[in-house]
Amino acid sequence: MQSILLRFLILALLGMTSVHAAAQQAPADLAVVVTEHPTTADMVEITAFSPTYPTDLLQAQIAKLGELLNSAPRGVMTFRSSIPTASGDVTFVKAKFAVDGLIDRAAGELRIEPLIKAFAGAQEPFTIHAMTVLFDGEKPNENTVKNFSSEFVAGQARIVPSLTEKGQPGIEYAITLLSQDSQKLSFPSKRVEPKGTDAPSQAGGSLPMYVWAAIIVAGLSAGALVYLALARRTPARR
Question: Which terminal Cβ of the chain has fewer Cβ within 10 Å, N or C?
Fold first, then answer.
């Protein structure tokens, strides 16, 4: 996995002055990657693009996410990680943990609403106006939400390649928060419009793959994720 991500990163650096420039051009303030572990726990990795994003704020937002999911986050790690580039180090603020309830394969649902509620409402300069949520390895189905918009939030899905060398493609949502009032934010976990042949688009969207690669490479040095915490969990019903 590390080798393919490093290749993505090298290609990105050849095509741009720095990964930091790519991140600045992207609309997202925050990137979330959710991967279902074989135990059915959801492995979550969060990257805040602001190098000064407070880790205590990130920890509070993770705790709020756990409350919304009725699932205490396990094995939470927050840290800063840097990537050296020709124009200087690029620093991200990251978090990794396990939680239950974001992916429900049995019901064919992906839950975005708890994420946007958890991260809304922070004061400037750390307000999250836009974020991406990647459900890595998840296949679209008849319940998959392709796009959604309201007075308070808008989101668009697309299919993206897997972050692992032999993994399945995933579904990435580009989310814009038009309100910071979490009480007003909602996002369906499954399609509510009449079912048709539409599926998440193959093109367009938010973060380029080289930015996703840089995000993941930045977190590799943190070591194992939170697998030891999984041993203490009760298998979730799906």
Answer: C
Q: Which residues are 98's β-sheet partners?
A: 43, 74
pTM of the complete model beyond 0.90: no
Give the tens place of pLDDT for each residue, 170-218: 999 999 999 999 999 999 999 875 544 455 554 344 555 545 555 555 5
Residue 169, classified by CB atoms within 10 Å of its CB into exposed (0-12), middle (13-18) or buried (19+), is middle
- CB atoms under 10 Å from CB of 76, counted, come to 19
Phi first, then psi, for residue 85 (nearest 5°) are -135, 175
3-state secondary structure 20-60: HHHHHHCCCCEEEEEEECCCCCEEEEEEECCCCCCHHHHHH
Locate 161 and state its tokens: 């390649």
**Cα–Cα dist 34/50, whole Å:** 20
CB 110 within 8 A of CB 103: yes
Candidate ranges 45-49, 206-210, 226-230; pick with highest mean pLDDT: 45-49
Q: Do residues 126 and 53 make contact, with C-beta atoms less than 8 angstroms apart? A: yes
Task: Say how far apart CA 184 and CA 199 lie, in whole Å.
Answer: 27
Distance CA 141, CA 125 (A): 38
CB 199 within 8 A of CB 147: no
- Both tokens of residue 206? 């938010």
Domain-wise residue ranges, the chain: 2-227
Q: State both tokens at 193.
A: 């419009």
3-state secondary structure of 133: strand
- pLDDT tens digits along 181-191: 999 999 999 98
